[in-house]
Amino acid sequence: MFLARPAGQPAREVISAADMTGAAWLDLLRPTKEEIALAEKLTGLKMPRREDLEEIESSSRHYKLGEVIYLSTPLVRRDEEDVTAFPVGLVLSDTLLITVRYSDYMAFDTMGRDLASRDLDMPNPDSSELALMLLEAMVNRLADVLEALGRSLDQVSRRVFAADTPRRRVRAAEMLRQTLRELGKNGDMASSVRDSLLGVDRIGIFLGDNGHYQSNMPLQLRLKIVGRDVASLNDFVAQTVNKIQFLLDATLGFISIEQNDGMKLLTVVSFVGIAPTLIAGIYGMNFKNIPELGWQNGYYYSLALMAFSMFVPLVWFWQRGWFGDR
C-alpha cells in the first residue's frame, strides 16, 4: 500500500503525482514491486528493498546519497500472542519523509492520526520534523511495550513466590512449565526491544553527527531528549533482563525442589516397605521347626507387627517434614 499522509487531512492512496500534493510524508506499507517502482518514479528517489533493510552492518543501515539520508532499524511489534520484529526504512530528503515498512505498527498509526487531526491553522511540519516525530512515537511505543513487559514479570514473580498450599503443590509442575514458557517469551521480547532501541539510538546519533538539525535548535533539543529517553529505556531493559534471569533461576530452583520432594516420597515408600517385607518373608518360610508355627494368633500377630513396622517410619519421616503439611 502506497499512502500519502498530509497534515490536517486523512491518509490517501497514491496512484498519481496529484495524490502527493501537500504531503511531506509518504508511507509504503507492505509495498509490492509495482508500488516501489511508482514511488521511485514520482519522487525521483531510490527506494530501499526489504533485503536492504535487513542488513545488519551500520554502514548499510545509515548512509547518505547526495542530500538524501537513508536509515533503517528493526522494530518490534507486540500483539496478544507473539512478538515479532520487522525492518523499517526511512528515506529523508529536504521535502519528503518516506517510510518503508512490512508490518502494521502502532507508532505509525498513532502519528498518522495525530497528523491527520492537526489544526489547519498550525504550520505544517517539514520532513525533518516528521522524522523526529516518528522517532519520538517509536520510543513512546517501545516504552509502552516495556511497561507491559514489567507488569507481566511482576505477575510471574508473584506466582513463582506464592505461599505453598496443597492445591499449589498438586499443580506445581504445570505452573512451573507455564512459567518457563512465559519467561522465554518475555526474554525474547526484551531482546527484540533492546535491538529496536539500539536501532533508534543509532538513527539519532547518525542524524546528530551529520548536523541534520544543527540549524534548528528546538528540533536539536528534541533529538537530545530522544537520546536520553533511549538511554533510560536501555537501563530499564538491562534491569528487566536481570529480573528475567533471576526468575528463571528461581523457577529452575523450585523445579529442583519439586524433584527432590518426589525423590523423598520414593525414599519413604521404599523404606516403609522394607520392614513389612522382611517380616512377611520370615513368617512365610516353610521350615518344619518354626517356633511360631503353631501359634493360634500368629497370623494376627504378624499383621500387627507389619503394620507397626510401617507406622513407626511413617511417623518418623512425617515429624521431619518429608511429607504431609507439618
TrEMBL record:
Membrane topology per record: Multi-pass membrane protein
Main location: membrane
Keyword Transmembrane: yes
GO CC, one annotated term: plasma membrane
InterPro entries xrefs: CorA_cytoplasmic_dom, CorA_TM1_TM2, MgTranspt_CorA/ZnTranspt_ZntB
Compartment list: Cell membrane
Protein name (Swiss-Prot/TrEMBL): Magnesium transporter
Species this protein is from: Kozakia baliensis
Taxon lineage: Bacteria, Pseudomonadati, Pseudomonadota, Alphaproteobacteria, Acetobacterales
